[in-house]
Amino acid sequence: MARYRGRFAPSPTGPLHAGSLVAALASWLDARANGGQWLVRIEDVDGPRCPPGMDEVILGQLAALGLVPDEPPVWQSRRGDLYQAALDRLIASGHAYGCACTRAEIAAAMGPRAKHGELVYPGTCRHGTNGRPVRAWRLRVEGRVDWQDRRLGTQSQDLAKEVGDFVLKRADGLWAYQLAVVVDDAEQGITDVVRGEDLADNTPRQIALQRALGLLTPRYLHTPLVLAADGHKLSKQNGAAAIDLSDPIARVRDAATELGIPANGNSTAVGDLLAELAPRWKPALTS
């Protein structure tokens, strides 16, 4: 088995908040508990949503919290050639095809049935665009994907019915998250993906892409979400506050408590606290 390599992959649409710190700490702890490496990838593939300089803000937050990657970070915005090569392979193998449909046309064909942030695609262009110009590229999906999550257990999704042929390259020319993350995980040799439970729904699509590209599938572990006072997921979209770095030790203790491993309170340096937490991580995985 390959040596453990994990990653934390924030989108620089805003600073890290308490929920994203929990995900970062979980991925770091899992790597350390397994004697592995921990990487950071800036997922800025959707450039228009990423304020200038926010990537450096996030890297600075991580450093202040003692979460320093074992290799230099990488940026998705600088990896377009890798994504294009993967798309070319998918097109050549018949797994990907050009799509001429607009969102309005898909909605008219399917009705307002939203899944996973987009309409379930009805397969209109699977056999050609009838001379219309290609707007986007899609992956041809078939049937159900079953997978095993280290925390959630056995999972299953019927991609054809619940998602449809999903986008790999958007009509605006931007790369879709699903393709970018699969290519990046493979190119960086990621063996274990540890991330928030809200991203579990992406996993079947990513596994389908891995199979189409002939790539290995990492192990997955999806951690509990941090909830706001109204019971909804704490997120940048609902105005979650940036991490208060005036007391990094307190912030790491808070995140560890959310993960079910409260610290003993004796550490006076963030590095010492992290060293205390790492050996206690594995038992928390069984909860």
From TrEMBL:
Pfam family, one: tRNA-synt_1c
Residue ranges of domain Glutamyl/glutaminyl-tRNA synthetase class Ib catalytic in the record: 5-242
Gene3D superfamilies given in the database record: HUPs
Ranges spanned by the short sequence motif 'KMSKS' region, renumbered to the chain: 233-237
Ranges that cross the membrane: none
Binding site for ATP: 236
UniProtKB keywords: Aminoacyl-tRNA synthetase, ATP-binding, Ligase, Metal-binding, Nucleotide-binding, Protein biosynthesis, Zinc
InterPro entries the record matches: Glu-Q_tRNA(Asp)_Synthase, Glu/Gln-tRNA-synth, Glu/Gln-tRNA-synth_Ib_cat-dom, GluQ/Sye, Rossmann-like_a/b/a_fold
Motif 'HIGH' region in this chain: 10-20
Binding site for Zn(2+): 99, 101, 121, 125
Name of the featured protein: Glutamyl-Q tRNA(Asp) synthetase
Species of origin: Pelomonas candidula
